[in-house]
Amino acid sequence: MNYFPFALKQQLATRVMAIAPLVVSSSLLGDSSHAYANLTATDPLEAPAGVSLLAQNPPLPPAVELLPLNPDPDALALPAEVTLDLSQPLTLDQAIELAIRNNLGLQISELQLQRARAQLKQALGQLYPTLSFQASVGQATRPSGQPAYLPLNFQQQLSLQQQQQQQGLQQLAGQQLEASRILANQVQRLQQRFQGPQLTAFADQQNLELQQQLQQLQNSATAAATPPTFTPITLAPVNQLNYTNFFTNLFGATAGATSNAALVMNYTLFTAGARAASIQAARDQVRFSELEVQRQLDQLILDVSNDYYLAQQAKVQVQIGEAAVANAEVTLRDAVAFERAGIGTLLDVLTAEVSLANAQQNLSQARNLEVTTRRQLAQRLNVNQTVDVAIADRVEPEGQWPLSLEDSILLAFEHRVELKQRLLQRQIALNNRQVALAAIRPQVSLFASGNMLDNLTDDLGPRFGYGVGVQMQLALFDGGNARASAARQEALAATAEEQYANQKELIRLEVETAYINLKANETNINTARTAVTQATEGLRLARLRFQAGVGTQQEVTNAETNLTQAQGNLLAAILNYNRSLAALKRAVGYPRQTRLTRGTVSAPVQGQ
């Protein structure tokens, strides 16, 4: 080292100091010491209304600026393209706002709440009587023995009568022709029988036969000369058609058409407790659905926060990786320069190349993780297919939890909606049991009706009648169906009780885990902050030793690696602290005083 050229040493020192700003410093993570020092200055449980409990960020933009991030309003449509042409930086508050507005799981819960409210209205309908109206018009027919025709106009009537006359003339001509043929046959037979000279006197028997033959000839001649008789069809004129004979003309019937109308009212006076139990069960179901919406909202805030912190960590890891690659490149150039000057070794060059390759690989993995986490956040927010979200918040601690572990557990038992849901499930099962048992108990109902009957083909007016009475119904045997259903509901109620006890244990475990992790990460922040300060000072001293010629390049490389690792540890400690704080808030049920209330992110009121 005593033969190290002073000019070359000064040149390398100048190059190293020029690239020194590329080394990741605490500015990437925000002023962590200042941020953590302010942890005790804020009491989350006493935060004034309208103030965020997270790190102070610039004011939210108007909601209209976030509209391009909304998904396609047609949920069944497929996107025409998925090119990411819009990168939108988002703060954590903005991400929560978009999630509450766009998240599909929360929208499904709201639809289920609407369904429960509709079922409650349906159950409340049992408090009122039912009123129904029935009306009918019919025609009772029987064969009349005569054909019937639809009403025709004048031209159709005249054409039909002409056809009837032609048919009658043709029938007359046929009868005359038949009579002439019969007469000719009879004359021929007489001529054949009485051939010979004319007799002036006949015997009695012969005289009788001759008279009979002459009588037959006379009858045949009379039939041939007499026109046939037929009955023409009589048609009803158009101006004589009315509603009283329309059905008769149409169907050829002798019975009249009738109309009937009835108004019926029913009301159940006594249901053996089924009505009140079903209404109360519907009310409890509405309350259960409201709590489910609140549970989904609480879980959505936690999920969005975790996704946002994960994307934050990936973003800063990329920045740390880029600085590490830049430092490795400087180290490699220095190693090559040393080797060319004859004062370095090939081993130093190979070591620098390996360090650069490792840094580049870590940077590639960090960039891949950044893209993945951003797309995961975009999916959670349900933004437009062409939008790529970016992270706008700096990495810094979010606040401090001022309560003890015991007070946190009691607060969770008071505010967690899951416990209230288990109690509601038990009450719903007991109400359904009452409904099931009412099926084998007496049912008393009141009915009243009024009706009207009218014959449309007569000249009489409509007749009216009414009826009123009380009806009692009792199922004597149903095969054990009602009691089996009641036993099933009893089992559901017992299950809800066990789930309530199990849920209490789970909630306590969640609070204890989140609280312990919060305190551990709180300590880790102090430790990592101290380590970053020490690593920064160590890198400074290593460079000074290198400039003075008493240090080696490996010392500088090790100092850079230590600083990079310390910064990564500080990043992990802060984000793990934020995750633990978000998990602790979720574990205690987000009491109203600790809600995110800035901007459009509103806190649901307990009991709604």
Structure described in brief:
It contains 13 helices and six strands. With 608 residues, it is of the alpha+beta class.
Reconstruct the topology from this structure.
Blueprint: H1 6-19, H2 32-37, E1 86-90, H3 92-102, H4 104-124, E2 130-139, H5 154-193, H6 204-225, H7 243-251, E3 257-270, H8 274-341, H9 346-381, E4 387-391, H10 405-415, H11 417-438, E5 443-455, E6 463-473, H12 481-548, H13 553-587
Helix pairs in contact: 1-8, 3-8, 4-8, 5-6, 8-9, 8-11, 8-13, 10-12, 11-12, 12-13
Describe what this molecule looks like in 3D.
With 608 residues, this protein is α+β, with helices and mostly antiparallel strands. The chain has helices at 6-19, 32-37, 92-102, 104-124, 154-193, 204-225, 243-251, 274-341, 346-381, 405-415, 417-438, 481-548, 553-587, and strands at 86-90, 130-139, 257-270, 387-391, 443-455, 463-473. The radius of gyration is 52 Å and the shape is elongated. It is built from 13 helices and 6 strands. 60% of the residues lie in helices and 10% in strands. The protein has 2 domains: 6-73 and 83-133 and 271-594, Outer membrane efflux proteins (OEP) (Up-down Bundle); 154-190 and 210-235, no CATH class. Helix 10 (405-415) packs antiparallel against helix 12 (481-548).
